[in-house]
Design goal:
The protein is about 45% helix and about 20% strand. The chain has about 325 residues and is α+β, with helices and mostly antiparallel strands. The protein has three domains: about 180 residues, Transcription factor LuxR-like, autoinducer-binding domain (Beta-Lactamase), CATH 3.30.450.80; about 80 residues, Profilin-like (3-Layer(aba) Sandwich), CATH 3.40.1840; about 70 residues, Arc Repressor Mutant, subunit A.
């Protein structure tokens, strides 16, 4: 497919119509379809073969970038998962993350990493045009990337300028929609929040929520909530415990708002449950704890079962670790 160019006299009018359409979509389509439909309208002005957008972690020397939330047009369902596997070697990604707010273009299958080239050939990503933005409220980066295939032509300077101006509007309207749903200013609290569709796909996610889910549900790599969490979406409003953190699920139209709330051990456990947990972690048996606390072994078993549930732990080792990291002088005195 060969893409034609727009006549100069009509470009401004077409761009204005595109931005007006973006505003209508923000009001009418809801956040779930806004990004997809918005880019589809821009496609009429600047044609592309495929597109990818979402949130990813900032560039760090010690860890490769990670895509945490994404949407796509005419790309495989497994696109993000495949990209995450080679993200650390993707030089184009590193360039875009290092230049927030700037349009970065590239072409060819000549990345220094053969795996990146194989990935690009698999999805026919010959011409690339991308922009990233910092999202201080989430702790992540927002990106939009357009692609054309090997038989197409490169994105030119005029198209890059239109793309930059369009993405400014796109990001601003998307952020307004998300902020309306989570009722949060652009403060640090948004790092603890996520917005999910009822199928478990993420529309927005904060960095601390990502880290918490990944820490307690190893193997999760973003975009779709883990099955353990997605299964609770239709039960909202409800709460799920992830370690010492409560994850609250609140319905919001066709979405569910996820919010972290760290609780202390003292608010999570009753005093006798706390004492039983400390004794058990110190190596005492059910019978010994029952004798010390003047309880029945069955009651001790119930207390400990509740401790495991409330603290989100699965073994005595995990229980001891949680208690040690949360120990205070008062706790230590009470333990002995």
């Amino acid at each position: 497919m060969q893409y034609g160019t727009n006549k100069p006299m009509g470009v401004l009018d077409e761009f204005n119509r595109c931005v007006l359409q973006l505003g209508r979509l923000a009001r009418e389509r809801g956040a779930s379809q806004f990004m997809t439909q918005g880019l589809q309208s821009f496609r009429e002005l600047v044609p592309f073969a495929s597109a990818w957008w979402g949130e990813m972690s900032p560039l760090h020397d010690s860890t490769p970038p990670q895509n945490w939330m994404h949407g796509r047009i005419d790309l495989a369902d497994s696109f993000a998962t495949q990209w995450n596997a080679i993200a650390g070697s993707d030089s184009f990604c590193h360039r875009t993350l290092a230049q927030p707010g700037e349009i970065v273009r590239d072409h060819g299958f000549d990345d220094p990493c053969d795996e990146v080239n194989a990935f690009a050939r698999r999805h026919d990503l010959f011409y690339l045009m991308c922009i990233t933005f910092e999202l201080p409220e989430s702790g992540l980066m927002f990106f939009v990337c357009l692609y054309r295939g090997v038989n197409d032509r490169a994105f030119d300077d005029d198209e890059a300028s239109l793309f930059s101006a369009f993405c400014d509007h796109l990001l601003q309207l998307w952020r307004f929609q998300v902020q309306d749903m989570i009722r949060s200013d652009t403060g640090d609290s948004a790092k603890d929040i996520g917005v999910a569709r009822l199928d478990g796909s993420l529309l927005y996610v904060g960095a601390r929520l990502c880290a918490t889910i990944q820490r307690h549900l190893p193997g999760w790599n973003g975009s779709m909530l883990p099955e353990h969490l997605a299964a609770h979406l239709l039960k909202a409003p409800c709460a799920i415990r992830l370690g010492r953190t409560a994850l609250t699920l609140t319905p919001n139209g066709e979405h569910v708002i996820l919010s972290l709330k760290t609780t202390s051990l003292h608010s999570a456990l009753a005093p006798r449950e706390m004492t039983a947990a400390m004794l058990f972690a110190d190596g005492h048996s059910y019978k010994e704890i029952a004798k010390i606390l003047a309880l029945s072994p069955a009651t001790v078993r119930t207390y400990l079962r509740n401790c495991y549930l409330q603290l989100g732990v699965k073994s005595k080792v995990e229980l001891g670790s949680v208690l040690r990291t949360s120990s205070t002088p008062a706790d230590a005195t009470r333990r002995h």
